[in-house]
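User: Structure please.
Assistant: Input sequence and predicted structure:
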Amino acid sequence: MHINKNFIRNFAIIAHIDHGKSTLADALMRTCGALEQRHEKEQFLDNMDIERERGITIKAQTVRLSFKAKDGQYYQLNLMDTPGHVDFSYEVSRSLSACEGSLLVVDSTQGVEAQTLANVYQAVEHDHTIIPVLNKMDLPSADPQNIKKQIQHLIGIPEEEAIEVSAKKGIGIEEVLQAIVDRLPCPKGNENACLKALLVDSWYDVYLGVVLLVRIIDGIIEPKMKIRMMAADAVYTVEQIGVFTPYPSPVLHLSCGEVGYIIANVKAVGDCRIGDTITSDQKPASEALPGFKPCTPVVFCSLFPVEASDFDKLRESLAKLHLNDASFSYEMDSSNALGFGFRLGLLGLLHLEVVQERLEREFDLDLIITAPSVVYKIHLQNGTWMDLHNPADMPSPNEISVMLEPWIKTTLFVPETYVGSVLTLLIERRGIQESLEYVTPTRALMVYKMPLNEVAFDFYDTLKSLSRGHASFDYEMDGYKEGELVLLSVVINGDPIHALSSIVPKTRAYEKGRAICQKLKEILPRQLFPIAIQATVGAKVLARETVSALRKNVTAKCYGGDITRKRKLLEKQKEGKKRMRQFGNIEIPQKAFIEVLKIGK
């Protein structure tokens, strides 16, 4: 069935984490009759195990709904459910580029949060019409009047435009659907022009190969049509076209303004570049769509397979995962201790955890991860600059002229009860205050600048525990500044362990080095010879611990007799231990790497 683009509405749902986006998506699907009773489950669009376990959305999902408006006309609504966590902002930006409007969901018990603001700014950048929706109105602690004022004060949307709903109880859902039809613009574009489709997402299917999710900007796409990917300059024949309703449903064509999937026997994973333009091979478009702003990785770490024979499997798995999550980058890496692996660039620590879990679950891999690090810029004495991704590659101190570290600008919303403890945390993490204002009598908005390294490890967890989960934070990159930084190395029995080395502020080197040595002393299994664990900066040893040797009582069989007999046996044991220490090999368990990463939490 061919539909006029005036009756199409494309919209995204944006919100802070845990404000009820996925529950609202369920309610919209239920109201439009897209979910059958027997298939119904909560957070239907969160279809990954990790999403359901953690209660977060990681992947943006799309679904086509059909809604009969008050004018008696049926409208096609294409919904994008987006993630709320700061680490998945790239997913959000891609979804927004495929839509003309957004539903801004705000929890009516908590109000506007840091990520709400960040997502609104992204929506404004994409020229979106925004409809504010106050969710969780069924809760006794809901405070809609104050929250509407907050939305007007912070975002500038008139308070009378906000719609009060309870997604869980299904209250106000019809009103939201009607507002989407009335307030959001229909897609622009020309159905008779050359085909231009934006590649929004892709994923690997074992049976079908690569599945492409596209938004048609101009023209029309049909089965058996030859399409060209403009960035990769690859030509494929379309086998099948479909939409998610939310189940995959084949259709005869996708025309201007619609969102759907294409199966075209794409086997080369490298041909699919998110943000690419798909056009017709017979009548190609003259220029590509602008695509997406490339995302900049901020946290780096290395991944190594526990079994060296799994290296090829890890390479294939990363290529398939990258197809589905274009926001991380990877390149080959090697380590004396851990063999061959890959260096990953990610958008944050939660992103790192999710990528690791997905590799282990979806591709059945056992992995070792090195300490996350950020990118430093080093000005060498010879006048050249270098980017330092891996602490193990740091030049010696006498070659370095200046070392710069990345800084971020962070926005925090904190209930007044916890302002004191959060300020202490920010000062500990070398934060510099830009502003602090009370947006309501009970909530403070703080803007701070701080080094990214201080946030990359455990800042988010510490902030949540200090504020009992009520504080929220968001950040953006803010350039580089000079810092007094040193390379903290871990040496075990004279061998440096590169996977455990990290770059730390000079003032914290002793404290961190001591903590690492104590932790390793607890974890390393005892051997038949003593193990010396040292934390060093250059040639200077800052901290040392020794794991004492296991001892066999060689004199147990001596009953009495001359002392020289016992001494002879002890000397013989001592010689054996000395020889053993020379050739003894210390196996560092995987647990040791993970525990050292957690130091400071």
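Confidence is low (pLDDT under 50) at residues 37-58.
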